[in-house]
Structures are given as structure tokens and as C-alpha cells.
Design goal:
The protein is an alpha/beta fold. It is built from four helices and 20 strands. It has a domain of 221 residues. Helix content is 13%, strand content 23%. The strands form five sheets. Strands 17-1-16-11-15-14-18 form a seven-stranded mixed beta sheet. Strands 8-9-3-5-19 form a five-stranded mixed beta sheet, with no helix packed on it. A hairpin with a 4-residue loop joins strand 6 and strand 7.
């Protein structure tokens, strides 16, 4: 596709997105809680609900009925509900929807390939992926981290970016990496686009799931209260800022909504109920460090032909899920801490052609 053709397609998609928001933002907002979510037409776009279902993956494994609760669970949850914003008395949990999240794009064997060089020295001697599929309409999230994911099922690979940008026909990123679609969604060397070693594509909320009223995997979440010196599986490293003097969770911690909570008695909207049930069945895993509050992540709507989420989610950057009682979350017994990654980058079938140095570098980042 020519550059002009790509720009034309992008304008059409943006117009359709805006039109989709307009269509659902009128009569769909006239009602109140209890209505069915309304979308701007059929959901035309990526669906990664089945990603990372390989052997050893935690994402699609329900929390066992008899799962043990960590002795410090109450302290951890109490800290989760503390706002880092001094003007707010408590955390108001949200889903990042229209920014500060991850746009996901589908690719196939016909998608143009680009050589993408990482500008951060997380690997001494550099890191470059020589043939990354990037659709002509792809664009990173416009907010600080500029995350982006490309799923190429023909190759069986998930490509992920942090700090992605394009100038002309040249793509670069602060970091870029890839992992198998049918793997665990975890980088043993810690070199994911998220600062915990957990793939940026793992644990997202997908619009098709909300439309169906069912999420069959754990969700990823972020909090400002992440330990800087500890990570537990599935995380392999941490981008946390908090010391051991407060009850900050280690990256990789898994929580569930207390199964004694009667979700149907909470008066939730359909999408909130779907999320709450998933939190009871599969829980949520600490995969990132946020700037101020407790955040879940939805696949960014910019990847879809029309706005794919409930109408009220089009109103701002974040969608409120405060009606879910997050103060009733339970921290599952924390596993033995992960060993800090050492040695060189760990290659997989999606990165076997990477051009790279031989040892992990000293690069650091602040994902807030």
C-alpha cells in the first residue's frame, strides 16, 4: 500500500471511529445502570482473548477453590486503596481505555516488515529485530509510554513496543521484543515492553469479551505501590518505586475478588459485572506500575474500525469500575521471589534472528 493510500485508510478509520462514538453516545446514554452495553456496530478488530494459553501459562488458569491467602493480604489491599494523589482520599479503580493503554493490531504474512532498533541499552551491544510486521494503519498509544502490540498469527508471534515511533518509513522504539502467541506471555530475561517481564498483550480486556459477557483469563493491573526490589512469578523483574517500609506488592502478585462477594447484588453495569466475575474466577496480576491509582487495561479502541466499547467508555481516558468492591480483593500466597535476570537475552522462535549483544545492559526506565 502506498503512503497516500495508508493515510487515506487511516482517515477513513478515524472517521469511522468518531462516527461510532457519536452513534453510541446519544440514545445509549439516555438510560441508566442495568442496560446492555451498546456498541457502534459489529466489533471489527483484534481479539486476543486466547493469547498465551500455552503450557505453564497462568493467564487461563482459574484460581483454585482452595487457594491460600497471603498472611499480609489485608495490609496489601489496604495499601492498594491509598491514593498517591493527595487531593483524593482513596483510590477510584479504573480501566484505561482511551489512552495510557495498549493498541493491538493484527498482521499476517502479507504485512510489510520493518527493521526496528531499540534505542535503550537493555542489552549491552544493542538489540534489533530485523523483520517486524507492522500494518500501514498501526500507531502507538499517544500517551507517555507509547505502547503498541502487533499479533501475527501466521508466524505465531506477538510483537510489542515501548516508546514506539515512526518517522517516514522508519520505525524505532525505546524497546521492542517478541514472544510466541501460544507461550506464557512472560519474558524470562525481563525484557518485555512492560517493566515486569510480562507481555504488554497479556491480561487486557477485549471488547469482544465484554460484548459476550465473559472473560476467561486473568487481568493485568497496575498500582503506584509496587515494590522496587522484588518480583514473584509470573513477573521476572520489577519497575516499582516503593520500598519495604510500606505494604507494597511485588510485581507478579496475584489477587482475586473474595468469592463470598455476591456480584449480582452489587447493581453493576453489564461490563462491570463481567469484570467482577473474571476477578473472582481468574483474578488480576500486578504487571505494571502506575502514576497514581489502581488501573486495569483495555485493548485501545484506535485499533478498531468503530468504537467497540460501551458508550459510557467513550467519555474520557478512563472508565470507572469503582462500583466493584476492590477493598474485598484477596492476595494469594506470594510465591518465592523470582531471581533477578542475569546473563544474556533469552531468545525464542520469534526472536531467533535478532541482532543483539551478549549480556543484559544497565538501561533503566520509569514507566509512570
Amino acid at each position: 500500500m502506498s503512503a497516500a493510500g495508508a493515510r487515506h485508510l487511516t482517515r477513513r478509520r478515524l472517521l469511522a471511529l468518531v462516527t461510532g462514538i457519536a452513534l453510541v453516545a446519544g440514545p445509549a446514554l439516555a438510560g441508566c445502570g442495568g442496560r446492555e452495553p451498546t456498541h457502534g456496530g459489529p466489533i471489527d478488530g483484534p481479539n486476543g482473548a486466547d493469547l498465551f494459553s500455552g503450557a505453564g501459562s497462568v493467564w487461563h488458569q482459574p484460581v483454585p477453590d482452595g487457594a491460600s491467602i497471603d498472611p499480609r493480604s489485608a495490609d496489601y489491599v489496604r495499601q492498594l486503596m491509598v491514593s498517591k494523589d493527595k487531593d483524593k482520599p482513596r483510590v477510584l479503580p479504573v480501566v484505561s481505555v482511551n489512552g495510557y493503554t495498549v493498541p493491538v493490531y493484527d498482521a499476517d504474512a502479507s504485512t510489510p516488515r520493518y527493521r526496528v532498533e531499540a534505542t535503550e541499552q537493555f542489552v549491552s551491544g544493542g538489540w534489533t529485530l530485523p523483520a517486524v510486521p507492522i500494518p500501514a494503519t498501526a500507531a502507538p498509544d499517544s500517551r507517555d509510554d507509547h505502547h503498541m502490540v502487533v499479533v501475527d498469527r501466521s508466524a505465531g508471534c506477538v510483537y510489542e513496543f515501548w516508546g514506539a515511533q515512526v518517522k517516514g518509513s522508519v520505525w524505532t522504539a525505546s524497546w521492542v521484543n517478541a514472544t510466541p502467541v501460544d507461550g506464557t506471555g512472560v519474558y524470562p530475561d525481563g525484557l518485555a515492553a512492560r517493566g515486569t517481564g510480562i507481555s504488554a498483550a497479556a491480561g487486557l480486556i477485549w471488547p469482544q469479551e465484554l460484548a459476550a459477557g465473559r472473560i476467561d483469563h486473568a487481568l493485568v493491573f497496575a498500582t503506584p505501590w509496587t515494590r522496587r526490589d522484588a518480583a514473584v512469578p509470573p513477573a521476572t523483574t520489577s519497575d516499582g518505586q516503593s520500598g519495604p517500609d510500606i505494604a507494597a506488592l511485588p510485581a507478579g502478585a496475584r489477587l482475586r475478588l473474595d468469592p463470598a462477594v455476591d456480584v449480582d447484588a452489587l447493581g453493576l453495569t453489564p461490563e462491570q459485572r463481567t469484570i467482577a466475575v473474571a476477578l473472582q474466577r481468574y483474578g488480576m496480576i500486578l504487571g505494571d506500575t502506575s502514576g497514581s491509582g489502581l488501573t486495569l487495561y483495555a485493548s485501545a479502541p484506535q485499533s478498531y474500525f468503530t468504537f467497540p466499547y460501551p458508550a459510557e467508555w467513550a467519555k474520557g481516558t478512563w472508565a470507572s469500575i469503582d462500583a466493584i468492591p476492590f477493598d474485598r480483593m484477596q492476595v494469594l500466597t506470594l510465591p518465592t521471589p523470582s531471581r533477578k535476570p542475569t546473563g544474556g537475552p533469552v531468545l525464542n522462535r520469534c526472536t531467533q534472528d535478532a541482532v543483539h549483544g551478549q549480556s543484559l545492559g544497565t538501561g533503566s526506565r520509569d514507566d509512570e
